[in-house]
Amino acid sequence: MFPPLPTELLQLLLKSEIAIGDFAIDATAGNGHDTVFLAQAVGENGKVLAIDIQKQAIDSTTARLENAGLRDRVHLHHGCHSELAKIAGEQRPRAIVFNLGYLPGGDHNLITQTEKTLKAISAAWEILISGGLLAVVCYPGHDGGGDEAAAVEFLITSFADHHTARYGMLYNEKPAPFLLLSRKLG
Amino acid sequence: MFPPLPTELLQLLLKSEIAIGDFAIDATAGNGHDTVFLAQAVGENGKVLAIDIQKQAIDSTTARLENAGLRDRVHLHHGCHSELAKIAGEQRPRAIVFNLGYLPGGDHNLITQTEKTLKAISAAWEILISGGLLAVVCYPGHDGGGDEAAAVEFLITSFADHHTARYGMLYNEKPAPFLLLSRKLG
């Protein structure tokens, strides 16, 4: 699709940055699309940690990984992504992906909570390797999504030594989803 | 580079959209980087029209094309891009690229003029084939570039049947260059 959707651009650009054997984190597993993408990108010797607070998302991601024959590369964690540094342990990831908002097909009242999102993104930035990549898809058109999106953009651009781009569709009526892409330079 | 610069993303995304044998227009030839890119993308049977109002840009683009062995595929026109519909004649392009601002290495007082830029972009949209692509790199950090960038963004999102994305770096201090990418749906 041209121009690509933010989620499409995310995969297009990350694909050539993640190397075989890498460790990557999907901080919002959701229906598992990005988890499967990351599991493919890290290859047979790589590892992915996928986190979601909803049991339905963990189940859906598990099924998608099993269908793709990629279940072995992924550690699934049912819990809050604000704990991601603890969950990741000693391993430092090359890439961390967040896709905010609600679970597609799930309960739209269960959305990411701004305070926990900010805590999770700060922790993600801390544990990334130098040169590592952070990608966040924000949904300012959703209820509560506008404040969350603005807070996330403010947080990321306040990090030291970041190189960040923003990509989003331009709709005429309502705020459109956008993608923040950052490289940690320090 | 991750994340890519706007000019890098432009080429990355256009590459797979332009087919062998296509007709494409570089409405601001400048130093010829995009002209060479387009001439490669359209292949041996394709054609490119490259326009610039500065003789220095036409010379620089000519030299770059000759070095790349691509001179034969390109019609160079020394004149104002606001006339591009007339210059293109009957041919309808699949893609049109604008890179606004001043000529790198040239006189920084010679910048694209907003009124002429808007006229050129409107004409470009008119002559694009259905499904065709418009890409505009804007420089809001340059003198006069902020107003021009805002006017271009407003114009493009006012077109009927456009599908548009915006990509830009997030700097902390000053407005950063950004790319507008549109597909003409109608």
Explain what you see.
2 copies of one chain form a homodimer. Chain A is of the alpha/beta class. Chain A has one domain: Rossmann fold. Helices cover 35% and strands 22% of the residues of chain A. The first copy, chain A, has 6 helices and 7 strands, in the order αβαβαβαβαβαββ. Chain A has a 7-stranded mixed beta sheet with strand order 3-2-1-4-5-7-6, sandwiched between helices. In chain A, α5 runs parallel beside α6. The mean pLDDT of chain A is 93. The interface between A and B is medium-sized, with 23 and 23 residues. β6 of chain A pairs antiparallel with β6 of chain B, so a sheet runs across the interface.
Keywords:
alpha/beta; 7 strands; homodimer; 186 residues; Rossmann fold; seven-stranded mixed beta sheet
SSE order and pairing:
Two copies of one chain form a homodimer.
Chain A: H1 6-15, E1 23-26, H2 33-42, E2 47-52, H3 55-67, E3 74-78, H4 84-88, E4 95-99, H5 114-127, E5 133-138, H6 145-158, E6 162-169, E7 178-184
Parallel strand pairs in A: 1-2, 1-4, 2-3, 4-5
Antiparallel strand pairs in A: 5-7, 6-7
Helix pairs in contact in A: 5-6
Concise summary:
With 186 residues, the first copy, chain A, is an alpha/beta fold. Helix content of chain A is 35%, strand content 22%.
**How many domains of chain A, as an integer?**
1
Find the biggest chain interface.
A-B, 23 and 23 residues
Mean pLDDT of chain A: 93
Rg of chain A: 15 Å
Count of strand segments of chain A: 7
Structural class of chain A: alpha/beta
Within CATH, the superfamily of chain A carries the name Vaccinia Virus protein VP39
Instruction: Please give the alpha-carbon distance between the first and last residues of chain A.
Output: 34 Å
- The percent of residues in helical segments of chain A reads 25-40%
Q: What is the percentage of strand-forming residues of chain A?
A: 15-25%
From the coordinates shown, what is the CATH architecture of chain A? 3-Layer(aba) Sandwich
- What string, H for helix and E for strand, traces the elements of chain A in order? HEHEHEHEHEHEE
User: CATH topology of chain A, what is it called?
Assistant: Rossmann fold
Strand order, largest beta sheet of chain A: 3-2-1-4-5-7-6
Oligomer: homodimer
Shape of chain A: globular
Outline the low-pLDDT stretches of chain A: none
